Amino acid sequence: MVTGVNNFVPERLIQARNARGLMSVSLSEMIGVSPTTISLYEKGTQKPKQSTIELMGKVLNLPVSFFLSTIEIDKPDKLFYRSMSSATKSSRLRAESKHEWALDIIDYLGEYFEFPELNLPDFELDSNFEDITENLIENIAESLRELWHLSDRPIPNLIQLLERNGIFVYRTHMNSEKLDAFSDYRLPNPIIALSSQKNNYYRSRFDAAHELGHLILHKNVDKRSLNKSSDFKLIEDQANYFASVFLLPQSSYSKDLWSPSLDAFRSLKSIWNVSIGMQIFRAKSLQFIDEKEEKRLWINRTRRGWNKSEPLDNSTEPEAPSLIRKSFKMLMDENVKTKAEISTDLKLKPSDIESIFELPKGFLSHDNEPNAVRLKTTGAKILEFPKK
After folding, report:
1. pLDDT value of position 197
2. Which of the following CATH numbers is that of domain 1-71: 3.40.190.80, 3.30.470.20, 1.20.1530.20, 1.10.260.40?
3. pTM of the complete model
4. b/e per residue, 68-99, with b = 16+ CB within 10 A?
5. Rounded distance between C-alpha atoms, residue 347 and residue 283, angstroms
6. What is the largest CA-CA distance in the chain?
7. pLDDT tens-digit readout, 68-97
8. Where do the structural domains in the chain lie, given as residue ranges?
9. Which residues pair with 184 in a beta bridge?
10. In this structure, what are the phi and psi dihedrals at residue 269, rounded to the nearest 5 degrees?
């Protein structure tokens, strides 16, 4: 009687199938078993043979060792998405599986580096998000700007600011135009994931600030609230409001706004590094315009074709996260790990690691990697991460 591989990890098959965007029936056809058998594998009630696991690896482009590795990370309790529609469900599953791989990788790097400590105050907000007012959000955003020594001027590089204060950021392909970003509050370092499909500097900064709002305002929110449309809308509106306030502080932006007009907003776009659309939103919250004037501005913005693409949108590349890329580079430059060892340790193909973090193609490939000259180790694993 042929028995299966005892140390096969069912959750890894689920993870891999979702990451590749495959339904059970599609995978079953590819490896020559029934959909019921795939279900039994994933439930852990039946173990696949070694030859089947090897075929899974070939079909899913993953090493066999991946399916035999236990999951050490805590899966996300809740992720804040900009869209929870049924149309994005499969894309969310795919993004979440890749995010679990990202967590594995970040934990791995954490064995070698001391990353910046989280510098995010606890504003002691409970799960009742309905009590969060616009005035409270204004005060929280102002307090955070003060803590991070931002004065009252525009933020030069938001992604660097987040990384410097202990928040991991990565850009990745999310397989859906409707998924802009998501955030995951976890310790010691919360995480913000941005869509690489949104290749817009201004939009990407807004997405990052929006997710920062979730990390601050909604970390204690019951995840069941995300499934109720009215609650979800309010939570999203609060994060939008935080982003506008954090990026456009009342005192200094008010002084710069010489006229609540499209031409004025356009002139300030490259100064404050925010979109014209966000400035319309902020002008309304600052009571520079009323609802009638706001509506007129949105209509005129559409008439100019700016609802599809605003002026300057293609003038600047989106801000790029650097913490993870620098970590990998230091591991290799200091001869702590070779490219081959990194992919072996992580039990992932180099192309997947590069794709998840939008690293340059070939950054971790090791097809022709020479044997590295290695430093003798003293048993210490920790490397000090440079501040800059």
Report:
1. 83
2. 1.10.260.40
3. 0.90
4. eeeeeeeebebbbbbbbeeebeebbbbbbbbb
5. 50
6. 82
7. 999 999 888 888 887 666 657 888 889 999
8. 1-71, 72-388
9. 191
10. -60, -45
